[in-house]
Design a protein that fits this description.
Layout (H helix, E strand, L loop, with lengths): L17 E10 L3 E3 L4 H11 L12 H7 L2 E2 L5 E4 H11 L8 H7 E4 L1 E6 L6 E10 L4 E9 L3 E10 L3 E9 L5 H14 L16 E3 L2 H9 L1
Antiparallel strand pairs: 1-10, 1-11, 2-9, 3-4, 4-7, 5-10, 6-7, 7-10, 8-9
Helix pairs in contact: 3-4, 3-5
């Protein structure tokens, strides 16, 4: 007796409605950046590999400031795109009808890829950065507590007047353009980006979605 033929079942996947939109955000408070420096990464790797500890180098405020900046390939300045996405996802706790899980899966913020030299010889890591515009950074000095409460000075880059254009890739089946604008706007007020942002009990790195008047000023500049 011949074996019955297997019935083939077709698989139909719901079509993703992937779209792109540009969202310009305007800084409401200074953006403080603090990229991992090559020196700090080498020191960390040295401890983990249990290599001989070198004598501590004299503090170089200018070098610390320069190494705190995220550099783009053309010499411009950026900030990790994932930082803006994380802020928007966290902001969903303050937005009715949108969960953090749904938001995390529904959109991505795209920037410019930059290869960063790693601590171990020959290694690199690709970072995705959103371009920060509006002017060059200044060197900021802060007193911080490290280790067993010891005071230390930190020198980092600060963008006093800044704006950024976020390229958002999203699934329109989950989030609409107006919902994205809303969570990004809430993120700028409630969460922020960079050091000493509202999420970390600070007031830096706050922003808002640009209004028509803001866009006219940006285009004029």
């Amino acid at each position: 007796m011949a074996a019955p033929k297997k019935q083939e079942i077709g698989i139909e996947l719901p079509r993703l409605d992937i779209r792109l939109m540009e969202v310009t955000v305007i800084g409401d408070s200074p953006l403080i950046v603090h990229a991992w420096s090559e020196k700090a990464k080498r020191e960390m790797l040295g401890k983990q590999m249990k290599t001989a500890k070198q004598a501590k180098e004299a503090k170089d405020p200018r070098a610390d400031f320069e190494s705190s900046l995220y550099r783009l390939a053309d010499g411009g300045y950026g900030f990790p795109s994932i930082g803006f996405k994380a802020a928007a996802v966290t902001a969903c706790t303050s937005v009715a009808g949108i969960t953090k899980v749904a938001a995390r899966q529904a959109f991505h913020i795209l920037g410019e890829d930059v290869d960063v030299i790693g601590a171990f010889e020959g290694t690199r890591a690709r970072h995705n950065l959103v371009r920060i515009e509006g002017g060059a950074p200044s060197m900021r000095e802060d007193t911080v507590r490290v280790g067993m409460g010891m005071a230390d000075l930190r020198y980092r880059g600060e963008f006093a007047d800044w704006y950024a254009k976020l390229l958002v890739r999203f699934n329109a089946n989950v989030l609409s353009e107006s919902q994205i604008l809303n969570i990004v706007n809430v993120a700028g007020f409630a969460v922020g980006v960079g050091e000493w942002r509202p999420e970390k009990d600070g007031m830096s790195g706050m922003f808002h979605v640009a209004t028509e008047a803001d866009l006219q000023k940006v285009e004029a500049v």
